[in-house]
Amino acid sequence: MGTVRDAGVVVTGAGGGIGAALARRFAAEGARVVVNDLDVTKAEAVAEEIGAIAVPGDASGVVPAARKALGGRVDIYCANAGVAPAGGPEAEEDLWEAAWDVNVMAHVRAARELLPEWLDRGSGRFVATVSAAGLLTMLGSAPYSVSKHAALAFAEWLSLTYRHCGVDVHAICPQGVRTDMLRGTGAAGELVLVPTAIEPAQVADALFEGMAAGRFLILPHPEVADYYAARATDPDRWLRGMNHLQRRLEEVPGQGVGR
C-alpha cells in the first residue's frame, strides 16, 4: 500500500463512530483529512480535534467541496455514512428511500465524481463501510439489510472493473461496533450484535491491515468469514438458524413481526 502521508482523504459520516475513528487514524498517519457529516457541530468537533478540515453536508454531494478543500485532489474516499431504519415491507416508503439513497446511491454518486480523476492518473482508493449485514443480514431491518447487500455488490463491481487501472476498493464488513447506530438497533442489536461488539478504533485498525495486505474484504470480526461460507454452502441450514434467532427476538415484548 505504501504510506498515506499527505494523501487527500475524505470520510463521510465522520462526526462519530466508525467514521470518526477512520478520520482519526488517517490523520494520525499523516493524511490530509476532510471530515464530512450532516451534523455540522460534530463534523467541526472531530476536524478540530485531529487537525482536519470539516466539510459538513449530504454525503451524496460532498466530493466537489472536499476536493477543493484538499487543494484539488482526493486520493482516498471512505463512503462511511449510513442509516439503519427498522422494519420490513411495512416500513414507510421514505425510510426505504433513505436507506437506498445514503447506503447505496451516495457511493454511486461519489464514484461517478471520482473515477475520471483516478483513471486519468492511474490511482485511487474507494473504501465502503458495508457491514456484515451486506454479507449476511440483519434481524429487524430489511431496508438496512437490502441496501447493504447492494452496497457490497457495488463495491465488488468497482473492484473487478477498475483494479487493473490502479483503483483499489475495500469493503469493511464488521458486526456490532459500539456506536450510536448500534445503540439504536434495540432488541435485535442486543441479541445479535452487542455480545461481540468492538470499538470503532478496531475497525480502523482492520482497515489499515487490509489495505496493507491488498484485501478487498475487511472483516474486523474474522468469524464473519465462516458465517458467510456457511450461508453460501448450505443456505437452508443458515436460514433455519437465522429464523431461530428471529423467533427468539419475537419473544421480546414489542418485537413481533410487523404486519
Description:
With 259 residues, the chain is of the alpha/beta class. The protein has a single domain (8-250), classed as NAD(P)-binding Rossmann-like Domain (Rossmann fold). It has 10 helices and 7 strands. The chain has helices at 17-28, 40-50, 63-69, 93-121, 142-162, 180-183, 186-192, 200-213, 224-233, 235-250; strands at residues 8-11, 32-35, 53-54, 76-79, 124-129, 167-172, 217-218. The chain has a 7-stranded parallel β-sheet with strand order 3-2-1-4-5-6-7, with helices on both faces. It is globular. The termini are far apart. The mean pLDDT is 92. Keywords: Oxidoreductase. Belongs to the short-chain dehydrogenases/reductases (SDR) family. It holds the Pfam family adh_short. One of its GO terms (molecular function) is oxidoreductase activity. It comes from Streptomyces eurocidicus (Streptoverticillium eurocidicus).
